[in-house]
Amino acid sequence: MPSKLNTVPFVSVENMMRLVLDIGVENAMAEIADYIEDDFRRWPLFDKTPRLAAHSAEGVIELMPTSDGIDYGFKYVNGHPKNMKEGLQTVTAFGLLASVDTGYPVLLTEMTVLTALRTAAMSAIATKYLAPENASTMAMIGNGAQSEFQALALKHICGVKEVRLYDIDPAATQKCADNLAASGLTLVKCKSAEEAIKGAQIITTCTADKQYATILTDNLVGAGVHINAIGGDCPGKTELHKDILLRSDIFVEYPPQTRIEGDIQQLSADHPVTEIWQVLTGEAAGRKGAMDITLFDGVGFAIEDFSALRWLRDRLKDRPRYVLLDMIADPDDPRDLFGMLQRERGRMSRLSP
Description:
The radius of gyration is 22 Å and the shape is elongated. Helix content is 34%, strand content 24%. It contains eleven helices and 17 strands.
């Protein structure tokens, strides 16, 4: 990557898509999962804070910052469920990685596609550590923009072979099935959540409505399953009946954020949960028994985005899918910013006819 201090590599949506297709979607998610696992194993080194949210009646806009003391990263992301009716994306994002040593940015990128990849990678990590042994069937409840990524990540990383699809909008289910037709997965289109979870050892919920919803009722969930509840991402939005939570061993990314935004916002502030990084490091147990219900209440956390940004920076070294942006003022004398303006005035005058 270029070393000129006044230029920053920028990865557009087009270049992100081409990079991912160069590598392969499933391979990219597996690589990002490795970066997330590496960073979660050094969790105590990171600055951590719940994301900074600006809520409105239409949705939410959030900043997600973190640093490991060497690099600093943040993501800007929105969540506007109403957008879908207007032909717009529900979620869009961009992100930046910077050097802590100089404060200079070293990478600017779209993160709408990248977030979909890292979210699916995170679900696969949780599933790998928490699902029943030899689990091979997943119910995918909610067949929107994230569903194909989830299915492919769990296929590649966790060995899922069958995905049972359900969405309140049959067109979404058909879209998902069409997109995954050549994936090698066995796809079953279902007419209800109850039908979808029959025979599934893994249940993933990923719905968009910003409301207290009950996508899964208590009577639908039997023993011996793993649930990825990844649709919750703001106060006032849930997917699971409270009684499911009370029967589950709950695993989260960062409790101060998940207690505000996740399904566990329905529970008391002292209800016990396990941080998933502790499972990865061996400091806490994951699944304890075959008949347990494990629940990953995933809301997305800044360290996952940091991992994805690190992955992208490293991948660009051998696949230069970026353009350079002139983002940083670079005067001859760092104290003479105004002089740089004056010199530009002179250059413009010389170029004028």
